[in-house]
Amino acid sequence: MLALAGMVSSFMFTLVVPIQSKLPELLDASREDTAWVVTSTLLAAAVLTPIAGRLGDMYGKRRIVLILLVLLVAGSVIAAVSPGIVGVIIGRALQGAIVGVVPLGISILRDVLHEKHVDTAIALISATLGVGGALGLPISALVTETSDWHVLFWLAAGLGTVVFVLVLWIVPVSVLRTAGRFDYAGAAGLTVGLLGVLLAVSRGAEWGWGSAPTLVCGLGGVAVLVLWGWYELRIAEPLLDLRIAARRPVLLTNVASIAMGFALFASNVSYPQMLELPVESGSGFGLSLLQASLVVMPAGIVMMVLSPFSGRIARTVGPKLLLILGAVSLVVAYGYTLLFSDSVWHLLVANILIGFGIGFGYAAMPMLIMRSVPQSETGASNGLNALCRSLGTSTAGAVIGAVLAANTIDFEGSPVPTPVAFDLSFLIGGAVALLALITALFIPSGRAPEERHPSLPG
User: Fold this and answer.
1) CA 276 to CA 422: how far, in whole Å?
2) Domain span at residue 217?
3) Any idea what DSSP says for residue 415?
4) Which of 84, 170, 186, 250 has its CA 20 to 30 A from that of 439?
5) pLDDT per residue over 107-143, tens digit each?
């Protein structure tokens, strides 16, 4: 049930992809305003995920999962019944809260399962981060082509309701709690700082990288985060224990997570555009959105098939090697695309390699985190790791979008990316994947002795 909840959370990010280009017409708003339909989800997910992790550690992880599902259903209904853009943006922001169920679900697994089952279960729930998006995209495209766009949000509400009932019915209550007070000042500081940085990253290409709004948001956000870190190190009960986050395996895993998130989303931005652009433009293959999503979909299937094997590999040789294998697969995927990208089947093969890379990498990262933090910090630490992935994906969206926008030709009165623009995107994606590989090589192997699973003696 936790894996299903994770799949629903990743589905929320592809939910509006089929109608994204039509949103100005559907909502009678400017393209700049309708961009907030996507941006609001990203911001809410990034801000609420680490906070939800801490709340789960303190007040019960299943309880917070259920609250996040309620927010998803409420946001979906608000978006479904709203005729204008304000309601849709509010609804999409509430939908973004559901992303917190993945790190919370991973922490629940550590609390309630015997150690020999934990790695396989983590690999399964981690795979849903890619599976939901890959499988959800063709579903969204099919619904959009055959029905009213509001049905997408009713579908999300229905899925959220089903998952809520199943989690309430099946998932056991975790009795582990972290005592103390919730750090409201820390939560506020983290929220303000992250909003500033993510706004600058996600909207900088549109506002102008040197414009006043971008600089104020970006530099102001960084300044707030610095002050937040100083404050967190000086209080007894911080939102995030930065001393634990600074441990070498945790820090390097989070750096690799940023790079992995970037490499994944770089492919999500570039491959579908190449598949959908008209053949006559010289840059694309002229597929419909549904056809293009079917080419991308095998990546998600590979992630799901790999999940049980990922857990066995991690138990045998450790999650570090799993992360290295994932990073190698991503480097190979982008290198292959740079050499071979003149047929649809070439991009199909590349997406399968991406599936191997993300399937292994995303399974390994929470395992590495949980081997390096106290059990009382698993929710918050996994939330921070999920935040790092979000930073990678949002940065990839901005960087790859800027690269594709800066290298265009005119086609029937509209600018379209050139083949060189796509090659640059693949080169950047491969370079960042290589950074993930190098970082993974320096992560210490083994488990901290004080972090043995509670079901084991000693």
Assistant:
1) 13
2) 183-238
3) E
4) 186
5) 887 777 667 777 777 777 776 766 777 777 788 888 8
In this structure, what CATH number is given to the domain that contains residue 70? 1.20.1250.20
How many C-alpha atoms does 40 have within 13 Å on its Cβ side? Answer: 20
What are the CA-CA distances from residue 56 to residues 154, 365, 383 (Å)?
Answer: 28, 20, 10
pLDDT digits (tens, 9 = 90+) for 360-378: 998 888 888 888 887 767 7
Residues 6+ apart with CB under 8 A from 206: 32, 35
Q: pLDDT (tens digit, 9 = 90+) per residue, 142-161?
A: 888 788 888 999 999 999 99
Return the ∠ at Cα 82 (arms to 76 and 84), rounded to 5°: 130
| Tokens standing for residue 196 | 């500033």
- Domain assignment present for 273: yes
Q: Cα 262 to chain center, whole Å?
A: 10
Q: Is residue 104 located within the same domain as residue 167? A: yes
**Cα 352–358–363 angle (5° rounding)?**
130
Distance CA 416, CA 279 (A): 12
